[in-house]
Amino acid sequence: MGEFSFSIFPNENFLDLRLYQYGKEQCAPLHSFGPFVRNHYLFHYVISGQGSLDATDENGVTRIYRLEPGQGFLIFPGQVTTYSAHESDPWNYTWLEFDGLRVAEYVERTGLRPSQPIYFPLTPDQGRAVGDTMLYITDHSNESALHLVGHLCLFLDGLIQSSAARRELQGGQLRDFYIQEAITFMERNYSRDLTVEELAGVCKLNRSYFSKIFKENMGCPPQEFLIRLRLAKAADLMKSTGSSIGTIAAQCGYPNQLHFSRAFKKQYGLPPREWRAQNQIKKRGDC
To answer: In the listed set 144, 162, 180, which residue is the last one of a domain according to the structure?
Structure first.
């Protein structure tokens, strides 16, 4: 059996960027995983050896990719994938699973997408630097959550800067200012009904233009971002407070608890009560 290291991130109180689990493995020949669907983004960097990835694209068509040392692959939420080690030269890789409110924006900048999930670094040294940052996280699981999230930021920045498919930001600082204004407004008012027209009005922009630049910058429409924000806030409250799920749902913009439960399960993979039972922070004196 090959060398294997796996850790689960101990803290989810980060909304913009969250780390879920990470590890490294020297795979056995023909070792495979899948077919499987992830709820979050999962990136593998190939340190040595070879392997293959079978992944569905945006149209549900399965494509096969061969990978070598220094390359990587990104699995997207909802994407069906299977990956397998080479028969005579099995790969040794490291991985990070992550997500967050702004991750779609960062991934967009790498140029990676379901129809092109393979990471090609601009230079071998840049690729190794990305892998080294991942291995640092894997080898320092006892560090604080904030320390590990800081290195996750360094990983994403390195991935963006080194990706041969990277996309340059468009529209300059003024566009970024509009998007940040809208996000700040949503963070302050997520508990009540918000329309795209109101958000566009905050930025003093036309509705269609606002929707366009928001999706280009954040990787999702404003309505979807608002849903993710509300559910992230609800998850944080369920984890850190004793308030009832109905109360938390109403505080986060869901007066109908059934609608909240359906949305929460779609995002987190579990009903609210089950998720809370697994993730709630215990107070001192609790068993």
So the answer is: 162
Structural domain boundaries enclosing 236: 172-279
Q: pLDDT digits over 211-222, tens only? A: 988 888 888 899
Q: Indicate the pairing of strand 18-26 with strand 72-75.
A: unpaired
Residues 252, 133 share a domain = no
Within this chain, do residues 97 and 141 fall inside the same structural domain, yes or no? yes
Per the structure, the count of domains in the chain is: 2
Cβ neighbours of residue 147 closer than 8 Å, sequence gap 6 or more: 140
Regarding whether 134 and 191 lie in a shared domain, the answer is no
Per-residue pLDDT tens digits for 38-85:
989 999 999 999 999 999 988 888 889 999 999 999 999 989 999 999
Is the separation of the CB atoms in 20 and 149 below 8 Å?
Answer: no
Rounded to two decimals, what is the model's pTM?
Answer: 0.64
Cβ-based neighbours of 254, under 8 Å, separated by 6 or more: 230, 234, 260, 263
| Dist CA 11 CA 187 (whole Å) | 21
Residue with the bigger pLDDT between 242 and 44: it is: 44
- Omega of the bond leading into 124 within 30 degrees of 0 (cis): no
